Known about the structure:
By secondary structure, this protein is mainly beta. It has helices at 2-21, 34-39, 45-49, 161-164, 177-183; strands at residues 32-33, 57-58, 70-88, 97-114, 117-124, 135-144, 148-156, 187-189, 202-205, 211-220, 227-235, 252-264, 267-278, 284-286, 289-291, 295-306, 309-320, 345-353, 358-368, 387-388, 395-396, 403-416, 422-437, 442-444, 447-459. The strands form five sheets. A 16-stranded antiparallel barrel has the order 3-4-5-6-7-10-11-12-13-16-17-18-19-22-23-25. Strands 1-2 form a two-stranded antiparallel ribbon.
Amino acid sequence: MKTYAKILTAALLTTAVLHAEDSSMPELTGVVPLSELVRQGVITQQQADQIKGAAVGIEPRVVSKSHVEKITISGYAQFAFAYATGHDDVLPNPPANNTFYLPNIIFGVSADIGSGFSTTVQANLGDGFSSRNYIEKAYVEKEFEGYGNVQAGFKKAHFGFEQYTSSRYIPAPNRSIATNYFTSSYRRSGSGTFATSSAGVGTTRLGLGARRLGVYWAGEIPGVDGFDYFAEVTQGYQNFSAPSNTGSQNHMGYSGGVQYGSKFEGGKYLFGINGTYMPEGNSWNNGGLSQTNSIGAINPFGKLDYGNFRIMGEFFAANMENGKASYLNGPTSISGFNSGTSNPLGGTVYVSYMIGKLEPIFRFSAIDSDQGGVNPNVVKKGVSFGGAQPGTTTLTSNGQGFFNAAQSYYAGVNYYFLGTDAKIGLGWEHIQFGGRYNGTSFGGANASEDVIRFAAQVVF
Length: 460
């Protein structure tokens, strides 16, 4: 009977906890005697009689490890809609894109265990979840009071002010085309699309602000308020494994920067510069051919808040070894074997003004790829344009069109219910693409697209 009572007691404790979690049941707090469990219908009187010792009960509680000082659960959700139409100067206009999507669904947990040690794990279950690793960031951290902190793990490289600023603080529903070109995932246009050029014909996204595994230092100078500096050593490729055929598994990447911010009567400002160097950032290894090519870049930025007025801007300048698009056919047609060094430039400027809870905003962004190529996919949920297939000079709708330059204009308005914790935004973006790649060079027919965007977010 004693053994049976012990087993039954364990089962009843589990049942009681489950009932306590049911919102329809009264809350069980403190030590709950068996008589109360019978009264609330959690157990029967017969079951209570079979347990010897009428004082047996349960104490519902949440237990954390004694050395954990603080646990923080946070996140945010964003819902968006985009309607995009395209205009092609020479080919039939591409189909419109009309879609709902979830830019981000972030859920994160941070634990502070004391003595400056902590850890953060954050997942993104939103748009793009099926096509990339779902980890947004994951690292361990040690704080050195008055000097800075070191983080070891997985997060964005410190390059591109708009890129490493959380999307919940960006005024527009999407990041700018310049940010997407210089910082989002590395890409060659046409890679894996055409049999005659399996590696692609142009480096159309540089990937300099992508998520990487590494060690990240954010430092302070004692006695110099507002001055911060950053130094990072990471894997030279994004996510957890190197792309196939890049030959980049064994090299490191280096990023960092300095910034200074301060407040003054009626406002505040922040300015600084970031830099990065990827020794093999534009390399390729395919069919017995191998070429090591580097990418280096700088990124000055600034932000000013004065009263209800806000302006934010940044500039990009890169040096991409053998980054110009090739025109030859076959495996040697890839960037890196027969093309010259390109020096792409770009930048973005935001201007906004608060009127109560309403915020009209304007953004301008531009890219000059210096013949490296700009793929239209730098536009979030935009359209695609046709182009010339490698080895040909004929533009076709089933070709993959990319251009030498692009510029975009966004105008919209945000309404803040609870600051950035609850807001909605609506706007229109016009993007122009110039100097299409025509199979041998840039200078072909232009194209443009218009996108209407709506977005809503809630932060917790």
